[in-house]
Amino acid sequence: MNYFKIFFLNLYSYTLFLVYSALFIPVLILVVLVLSIFMDRRGTMRRVRRAIGWWGRGITLIPFPLIRVCYEDRFRDNPGEPYIYVCNHRSTSDGFLMSVLPIEAVQVVNIWPFRIPVIGFFARIAGYLNVRMMSPEEFFGKALTLLNQNVSIIFFPEGTRATGKKMGNFHSAAFRLALKSRVSIVPLCITGNETIMPKGSLVLRPGTVRVRRLPAITWSEYRDLNVYKLKNRVREILGRELALMESGA
Predict the structure, then answer these.
(1) 72: phi > 0 → left, psi -120 to 50 → alpha, else beta; which?
(2) What is the pLDDT of residue 124?
(3) Strand ranges, E, within the chain
(4) Where are the strands (E) in 177-241, listed by range?
(5) Alpha carbon distances (Å) from 18 to 92, 109, 117, 122
(6) pLDDT, mean of each 10-residue run, the chain (249 residues)
(7) For 100, which of 68, 71, 96, 243 could close a Cys bridge (C-beta 3.0–4.6 Å)?
(8) CB count in 10 Å sphere of residue 77
(9) Distance set, CA 229 to CA 6, 18, 140, 234 (Å)
(10) Angle at 57 (CA atoms; ends 4, 55), nearest 5 degrees
(11) Would you say 129 and 107 are in contact if contact means Cβ atoms under 8 Å apart?
(12) What residues are paired with 73 via a beta bridge?
């Protein structure tokens, strides 16, 4: 029965993903072309990112009810204020899960998402930041411009997905950007997805994913920290909260 459930889950999830994306992409391209006639680039990009968020939410709903995504919000943000999101990274599906956030945002990613046909298309038109193909000066310049436009930036500072539940070491880019911009940092915890699509496999398995947004760490709280101390503090916050979530809290 379990093998049949897994087979059925993968058959209908991947089929619907392809059909849904094949219908959505032409509509999005048409919308972008029409909007670009009547709006400036900033207004067009805001609506493009919102549309991509809708696409991502649709993707997370496709495998329901065999795969459930539960979003828990412990933080009330200020509308129009940008944030730097710092997330743990356990699965290739983490990028899709960012669509549950009620924000306009871009993700900081490696090269591989740009090489995947559908995902790469959306990453490019949304203006995602590829850390491997930019100099530090270009990266921080573009990131600061986005924050000044009230666009939040999402980091997975481990750089690559963890094996199991243990977090890897954090890279420093998110925290250097925070110290440069003085923007609040929002820790984001993700758990459960490591068993739904295990590392090295594209086979989906039933389960529940929990995404929990924690209160922001403001500039006044981290202004006296250096990059090393700041990234370790955020990593500790994520680690403690993940342990609580996995204990059922």
Answers:
(1) beta
(2) 82
(3) 67-73, 84-87, 105-109, 129-130, 152-155, 185-191, 207-213
(4) 185-191, 207-213
(5) 17, 23, 11, 14
(6) 87 93 86 83 86 88 93 83 94 87 90 74 83 88 95 91 79 96 97 86 92 95 96 96 90
(7) 71
(8) 18
(9) 43, 44, 20, 9
(10) 105
(11) yes
(12) 213
- If one counts every other C-beta atom within 10 angstroms of the C-beta of residue 60, the result is 20
What is the C-alpha separation between 155 and 190, in angstroms, rounded?
13
State CA 41 to chain mean position distance: 23
Length of the chain, in residues:
249
Both tokens of 15, joined, read 């089929």
Extract the tokens encoding 38: 């009547």
Find out whether 13 and 204 touch, Cβ atoms under 8 Å.
Answer: yes
User: Tokens 């929002």 identify what position?
Assistant: 186
Sign of the Cα torsion 190, 195, 199, 202 reads: negative
Pull the structure tokens for residue 74.
């412990």
CB 217 within 8 A of CB 249: no
Task: Provide φ and ψ at 91, rounded to 5°.
Answer: -150, 155
C-alpha–C-alpha distance, residues 22 and 38, integer Å: 26
Contacts of 157 (CB under 8 A, 6+ apart): 86, 170, 171, 172, 173, 174, 175, 231, 235
Closest CA to 144 of 134, 157, 159: 134
What is each CA distance from 44 to 31, 34, 107, 197, in whole angstroms?
Answer: 9, 9, 18, 34
Among 146, 107, 149, smallest CA distance to 138 is for 146
